[in-house]
Amino acid sequence: MSCRVKICGITNLEDALAACDYGADALGFVFYPKSPRYIDPVKANEIVAQLPPFVVPVALFVDAQAEDIESVVANNARWLIQFHGNESEAECLPYNRPYIKALRVKEGDDLLLAAQSYPSASAILLDAYKAGVPGGTGEVFNWSLIPEALPLPVILAGGLTPDNVARAVEQVAPYAVDVSGGVEASKGLKNNAKVKQFISGAKREQ
């Protein structure tokens, strides 16, 4: 089955539409003010309003206040939420939206137990752990740490690039892969050739 692809860190309409043209299944928009890929909610919703059908916009938050989340997702029913901080399941539920919970992976973690703590999630996103950095590290974690019996679909993130994504899909067989820095020209701006190559590598017949 073809692996799905989320292109994260979208900051402009041109990059968004190019990713859609190349076959992206989802686009990620970062609403974490400390991120170099942060996007204003008004601008993000203007972009989402122009996306083609069947492409899912994903709103990424890190331990955000409820009113900040609502200020983004209340304006468009298409939003799916990605919680990328230390949010409990109870903190993910009030928005009545499908959501993804990100987990940062390091040696010694019980990923099965962590995933079981979010039974209402649509998927679990696995990212590299780096102290003090909630995501976007650009680092690959040890994929062999992923248990085979996780109860939710797995979205693989962390240091993926056009050069390693096919190997990642073959080894991990995730539901989807997620990339941001690995397809950038500079922080917040995509390199369209890399985006196209990444999507092709993820979706090729394994």
TrEMBL record:
Residues spanning the signal sequence: none
EC class (word): isomerase
Pathway: Amino-acid biosynthesis; L-tryptophan biosynthesis; L-tryptophan from chorismate: step 3/5
Molecular functions (GO terms): phosphoribosylanthranilate isomerase activity
Pfam families xrefs: PRAI
Family per record: Belongs to the TrpF family.
Keywords: Amino-acid biosynthesis, Aromatic amino acid biosynthesis, Isomerase, Tryptophan biosynthesis
Catalytic activity: N-(5-phospho-beta-D-ribosyl)anthranilate = 1-(2-carboxyphenylamino)-1-deoxy-D-ribulose 5-phosphate
Domain N-(5'phosphoribosyl) anthranilate isomerase (PRAI): 5-199
InterPro entries (alphabetical): Aldolase_TIM (IPR013785), PRAI_dom (IPR001240), RibuloseP-bd_barrel (IPR011060), TrpF_fam (IPR044643)
SUPFAM superfamilies noted in UniProt: Ribulose-phoshate binding barrel
Gene: trpF
Enzyme nomenclature, EC number: 5.3.1.24
CDD domains xrefs: PRAI (cd00405)
Protein name, as recorded: N-(5'-phosphoribosyl)anthranilate isomerase
